[in-house]
Amino acid sequence: MSTPKNIHVRLPNWVGDLVMCTPALRALRHGFPDANITVEGRSFMRGLMEPLETVDDFLDTPSPERGVRPMLKRVRSLRRGDFDLSLVLPDSHSSAMGPFLARIPRRLGYSFDPGRRLLLTERLAPHQENGKRVPISMIERYLKLTRHLGCQDQGDEMTLVVTDESRSAVATRLAQHAIDENQPILLCITGASYGASKMWPAEYFAEAADALGKRHGLRTVLAPGPGEESTGSQVGEHMHEPCAVLLDPVLNLAQMAALVERARVVISNDTGPRSMAVALGIPCVVPFGPTDQRYTNHHLENQTLLSEDVDCAPCGLKTCPIDHPCMRDLLPERIIEATSAYLTAEKVTP
């Protein structure tokens, strides 16, 4: 089989998964050093992907992706790329449909049903144990695809490149809240684009941030993502200590990475910035509720995953139909102590 010259990679749709696919991109680059690698994803991902050495070009996925017109637009873009290999990382039919209609000769991804099987020329089955599908780390899941192509792993560390432009933009935003470069900050990620079920209660975030700010001399920064603005405002309203809520506008992904890099420690729901913190080596404490930890159970040296043993978890639901016991029962004291463990001195030294 000939060596591919133009490789198309359909990126994951979730920011956390996007960061977790960077080891696979690194393996792909090492395996095909002379190929042009074009990644396709949502437009807001561009700023996070373009600085990577593993990426040559970025192609915007039409939004919404479904529908005749968006799909035709996508197919035309893919045909112009003259791709000979497509690596489809998401599991949806729509993500694989574009490369199929664009007639890219080799199309690799995971296959779950006859429809998906039809759209791909090379298929991997989901991980199973004892005949049952079992969750595995998304990093490992993506690396299995690049191994199928003959690419050797180049480590499983996640990679992000923070630009000086993003650092400068974040410094300006923080200065507007009287936070200078010497002030250590506690970054709280209060939203979750997945759904409300992933969100630790606002009043719990506030209690933990107040306590940690007093104990360790930290200034709290709340940085909700697009559509999550109310979560940051709610936490801010519950707080007694000074805090900065970065709204109007919210940070883009590249700026969020710069803010995570700037933090002394992060408390984050199981959402994109949590993976950014791991990639950048920033300590992170994660309240876990409805999702299965096995999908992201990697690189635990610098992060702490906390959950409560409730019968209904992990349910995978986006909205809890009862009283949210998986998060409500996870009290602030546990988060405070886990976060304090990363702050070795009584006061953080700037």
Topology of this protein?
Elements: E1 6-10, H1 15-20, H2 22-31, E2 36-41, H3 46-49, E3 57-60, H4 68-80, E4 85-88, H5 93-101, E5 106-110, H6 114-119, E6 122-124, E7 128-129, E8 132-133, H7 138-148, H8 164-175, E9 185-189, H9 202-216, E10 219-222, H10 229-238, E11 243-245, H11 253-262, E12 265-268, H12 272-280, E13 284-287, E14 303-306, H13 325-328, H14 332-342
Parallel strand pairs: 1-2, 1-4, 2-3, 4-5, 5-6, 9-10, 9-12, 10-11, 12-13, 13-14
Antiparallel strand pairs: 7-8
List keywords for this structure.
single chain, 350 residues, alpha/beta, Rossmann fold, 6-stranded parallel β-sheet, globular
Plain-language structure description:
It is a single chain. The protein is an alpha/beta fold. It has 2 domains: 6-148, Rossmann fold; 164-342, 3-Layer(aba) Sandwich (Rossmann fold). It is built from 14 helices and 14 strands. The protein has a 6-stranded parallel beta sheet with strand order 3-2-1-4-5-6, with helices on both faces. The chain has a 6-stranded parallel beta sheet with strand order 11-10-9-12-13-14, sandwiched between helices. α6 (114-119) links the parallel β5 (106-110) and β6 (122-124). The longest helix has 15 residues, at 202-216. Residues 345-350 have low confidence and may be disordered.
